[in-house]
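Section handout 9: paired folding examples.
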Amino acid sequence: MKVSDNMKYSEERSFWINALFFILSIAGLFVGPLIFALMLRNFIKNLDILELVCNILFILVLYLMYFKDLNREAKTYSKNFKDSFFKGLKYYFLGLMAMIFFNLILSFVMKGVSANEDTVRNMLFSNPIYTMLSIVIIAPLSEELIFRKSLAPIIKNKWIYATICGLLFGGAHLLAGEFNWLNLLYIFPYGSLGFAFAIMDYETKSTFTSIVMHAIHNGITGIMLLIVYYMGAL
């Protein structure tokens, strides 16, 4: 299938509108769920449910921003499911290998895991059901719409697009915990996976490719961590 026959990203919007959508998406990552929490905290007392609802509402806002694009991309992904899935799997495997390589190197330098990984593990072990819902559904949807979908209409060059996606994705995962200059090195493993997600979306012309691969990655990782934890190895 030729690229001209595929869905083209947001051609009906100007560059500046797409840039504004990108800025709103990034800003929404930090303040969107918080705004919804302030609105709903008197109605939903359970903090886990409140956070889950707020994140879902934020994803809905992102969907409404890109609903025409996403509807087309859903049809593209469905129509070319087999090709898109296995192409996504190929790039995911390459990204995962790079992530493992960098993590092995950093394990000798840092003598531990990143602050983000430590935070997720603590949440997973203390509240597995909520955390699995969060990392398998909320994170793939919100992060792929923010770090991939919002950039796709702005940057047309495949490699520049993938590089910036990787840097933003990696950088966002370094925000947890106390700042440490050495922690910046973790941008390489996280960025490798973000780079791979961007490439698979560009190749398949659908953000749903990386959403599915992201969900699979988080799901398998979460289940493996829980198994190891309940076996007493962590």
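Moving on to protein 2 of 2.
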Amino acid sequence: MDTFTKELNELLVNTFWSILKVEEKMLKNDHNINLSINEFHLIETVGNGDAHGITVGEIAQKLQIAPPSVTVSINKLRTKGYVEKRRDQKDGRVVYVTLTELGQKINRMHQYFHARMVSDVARELTDEEREVLLSGLRKLSAFFNRRTGGQAE
């Protein structure tokens, strides 16, 4: 590997793991919440659903994981009191998932963490550095979206 490729690899891997570690520490350790990072992101996805909720299939699609895995995780979150499930009145095969009051509180904490993280990072950058960072991250995001079959935003 050339110097650029080696450093880029180290930065991508280290940044990814550092974000997860900081997120887990802030949300789990600082607030004594017994949730995994994956569960936080599942709660976030449910919280982004519309007023009647989000289906297990929609969650699976958004998170790019298998519906049976989503079902298992949703059932765990339901037991912990973070989500509720209800069947569609017209089609009983369809199950909608919504956040409980506790789930909404956790979701707000998670959103606050992200807002604070972005604000803290942005504070360290000049206007020019912000533009360069955003341009590079847009390209990086598009690259990974193409590789995972996702849609670039």
